[in-house]
Amino acid sequence: MSEATLAWRQFRLERRMFWRNPSAAFFNFVLPLIFLVLFGAIFSGDRKNLDIVIPGIAGMNVMATTFSALAMNLTFLREEGVLKRIRGTPLSGGAYLSGIFGNVIVNATVQVAIVVVAGKLFFGLPWPREWVALVVFLYVGVACLASLGVAFSHLIPNFDAAPAYVNIVYLPSIFIGGVFFDPAHVHSKILSDIAEVIPLSHVVAGLRGAMVSGQGVGHHVGDLAVVLAWTALGVTFAVRGFSWGKSD
Amino acid sequence: MKGIDFEVARGEVFGLLGPNGAGKTTTVEILEGYRARSSGEVSVLGFDPGRRARELRERVGIVLQSCGIYRHITVREAVAHWAAMYPHPREVEEVIAIAGLQEKRSAKTRELSGGQLRRLDLALALVGDPELIFLDEPTTGFDPAARRAAWETVRALRDLGKTVLLTTHYLDEAQELADRVAIIKDGRILVSGAPRELGVGSQTHVRVAWREADGTQHEREVDDPTALLNELTGEALARGERVRELTVTRPSLEDVYLELTSGPAERESVGV
Q1: Side by side, which strands form the sheet with B180-185?
Q2: C-alpha torsion sign, points A221, A226, A229, A234
Q3: Nearest to A17 among B33, B73, B87 (CB)
Q4: Which of B32, B73, B85 lies at the smallest CB-CB distance from A91?
Q5: Which of A204, B20, B86, B134 is packed most tightly, with the most Cβ within 10 A?
Q6: Rounded distance, CA B121 to CA B27, Å?
Q7: pTM listed for this prediction
Q8: Chain-chain contact of A88 with B77 (C-beta, under 8 angstroms)
Q9: How far, CA to CA in Å, does B91 sit from each of A133, A220, B126?
Q10: Looking at beta carbons, which residues of chain A come within 8 Å of B85?
């Protein structure tokens, strides 16, 4: 079978397994809705803050479905020996990773779609004015954070430690990255400096521009450049020395 | 590993036998392409496994010692997914039947018992119709009935002309299944050959035991029992008696194994 067919089969298997694991499906689809409802209630009628937090939640979801999900899942599969078993088959690493990337691409797309639709229907946001920028920042963000998730999984010693390792990156990222507030209004120089460096703040900035202020990609070239730089780094470390087993 | 050398012929069942930590798994993992060797030459079906050629992986089936599987798919889905990775897979249902998992074909893998999971391991290794099958301790943790069933499967593989390399620390398993075995310890091969032949090496003897008319038990180890047996039976016939409880035993693989793999200290402590 061709590489593309094998990747497609792996993708379909990943989708099937995703839906059969109720906690994963919940985490992916219900949690963002809960966040939307909560923040919608907190900032009810507060146009300025809703414009901040709703695209922010879209960015947060991109990170949760890619970085966190892949770092956790790969650690689990590595520890269980599933990756080692796959390594012994003719399935290539490229086809396998394409399959699992396809899976997180679908999850991230569905989540951002939920936020966009809910933003329009319930929170008074317009339909995104810059679809191109939305698509660009969504998928560049997915590529960046997914590859960083794969790379990061190599640092996690075992599955018991995985939630701690993932959250020590994820939780500070969503706060410093300006998911819940306008990064321009942060009074800590250190935090705003960190926000300049980490990828999530730039993904959120691009999504916010596309969803709220109608800013195209041209408005966020700097953001795009930072995210692409992290993507290059993530891909390098994800692919080079990809570890299939504990003892590798 | 301290340098081992062996060849497995096509269609042969070859057993690597040794205590835990002897280097069995390291050896097969080098052959399977999981580990890089530090030196030496390895050829598996004409390929260097370290280069991980896809064509080699299409012709090899691997049963690892402990290896997980996706938890949320059924037995049938797992076997079918694996089948699609190979150019000439066997029938999915047929493989499920060989592994004895027909009744579990619709069960999720996380619902399977330990023994059933091992049989699924076997099914996934066989579904690509490999020429060469690696079985790393295939029956560890099996109950006796499951072991017998697994042995039947290995014999069936040999009958199909497959080459099997199995590691085990069960002597009876090596004796039952392997055409040839190599006993390995501390990264070295101590002895190799057909299980039958290993018992009659130069340093081993035939043990003759019998009971005298007065009830005393005798036991003697000799290189060649012919003379002793002639003497015993001749005397008994002359007296019109029977030689009671006469046994003539060649050392089993187990004796050879214990002799070879126990250090001097252990030998003393068991009073050998």
Answers
A1: B60-63, B132-136, B163-168, B13-17, B180-185, B188-193
A2: negative
A3: B73
A4: B85
A5: A204
A6: 20
A7: 0.84
A8: no
A9: 49, 54, 10
A10: 1, 6, 89-91
CA B45/CA A225 separation, integer angstroms: 49
pLDDT of residue B199: 60
Task: Please identify which residue in the block is written with the tokens 């590859």.
Answer: A147
Strands B13-17 and B180-185: what pairing? parallel
- Which residues partner with B166 through β-bridges? B15, B135
pLDDT band with cut points at 50, 70 and 90 for residue B201: low
pLDDT at B266: 44
Nearest to B208 by CA among B200, B220, B224: B220
In chain B, which residue's Cα lies nearest the Cα of A96? B85
Question: What pLDDT, on a 0 to 100 scale, did the predictor assign at position B267?
Answer: 40
Among candidate residues A197, A171, A137, A159, the one with its CA nearest the CA of residue A67:
A171
ipTM of the complex: 0.88
pLDDT for B202: 46
Does residue B272 carry a pLDDT above 70? no
Look at residue B271 and tell me whether its pLDDT is greater than 50. no
Helix, strand, coil percentages, rounded to 5, for chain B: 40, 20, 40
What pLDDT, on a 0 to 100 scale, did the predictor assign at position A115? 93
- Taking chain A, what is the end-to-end CA distance rounded to the nearest angstrom? 28
Where residue A215 falls (left for φ over 0; alpha for ψ -120 to 50; beta otherwise) is beta
Tallying the residues shown for chain B, one arrives at 272
Instruction: Report residue B80 as tokens.
Output: 């079918």
Report whether A177 contacts A59 (CB < 8 A). Answer: yes
Q: CA B117 to CA A155: how far, in whole Å?
A: 30
- Chain B residues at the A interface, defined by Cβ less than 8 Å, are 32-34, 54, 57-58, 60, 62, 64, 66-70, 72-73, 77, 81-82, 84-87, 124, 128
Q: Quote the CA–CA distance of B67 and B140 in Å, as a whole number.
A: 13
- Do A29 and A110 touch, CB atoms closer than 8 A? yes
Q: How far is CA A72 from CA A24, A164, A170, B38, in A?
A: 11, 10, 12, 33
| Closest to B185 in 3D by CA, of B69, B42, B57, B20 | B20
Judging by beta carbons within 10 Å of its beta carbon (0-12, 13-18, 19+), is residue A157 exposed, middle or buried?
Answer: exposed
Count Cβ neighbours within 10 Å for each residue of B21-32 and write b for 16 or more, e otherwise.
ebbbbbbbbbbb
CA distance B148 to chain A (A): 25
SS3 at position A186: coil
